[in-house]
Amino acid sequence: MANIQAVFSDLDGTLLNSSHKITPLTAAAIRRLGEIGIPFVPVSGRGPQGIDLILEGQGLRCPIIAYSGALMLDEQRRVIFERGMSLGEARAVVDHLKARRFDLTWCAFSAKQWLVPTREDPRILVEEAILQTQATPGGLDRLQAGEVVDKLMCICDPEQLPAVEADVKAAFPMYTVVPSDRHLLEIMTGGVNKAQAMAQFCQLRQLDLRCVAAFGDQYNDLEMLQRAGYGIAMGNAPEPIRRAAGRVTADHDHDGVYYALQALGLA
User: Fold this and answer.
1) Given phi > 0 = left and psi -120 to 50 = alpha, else beta, which region is 17?
2) Model's pTM, two decimal places?
């Protein structure tokens, strides 16, 4: 058995199958981690409510890292870390996207809210169905006093995403800008990413990064996979991710997380 002190996992395309569900085999493996005292930590671009909806459906309660590292909550859902944009910073990005007239819609996420310009955009409706959460129309004006924007997200045509990514990176080099799917671009304050959040969690819990496993399937997971002692890419990950990670398991529709944990002696 490998000396594993914690397991970190992306959700969509990794822990969740194509139907956005955790299979019984993988859920049993996660519960087994709790039984043997190994923390399991979902690390997702989703917000806390969306992550908890998935966990509660399996009777799981564990720390979570939301918004790709911008927000971290403990088992009792107390905030142990948050680093987001101010209203002015977020508005500057949104105004830039509007001025560039890209064919996209944007979302803003805080610890408590998912804000969109309108719910009438079909791209928002698709995302609501995936996240099983309803967005709040009205945009950034709905932010409450003291709230920060943990993440901005653009939903755009996959063919246009590289151009949008390059444009935003050039205009806002101080921010973390990374695709999380073929049609999704995440924008967060500088220094926020899944790898940094994983490292901070390990520091708080006095865990050795060389002794943690991490699972992922997308470009926003790559740093996390490379920094963990046991970084494991899913079989459905793009070829550059699989090659860079080194370790590869089965895809998300065939219990890749379970079989990798089994190979590590944890399932």
Assistant:
1) beta
2) 0.83
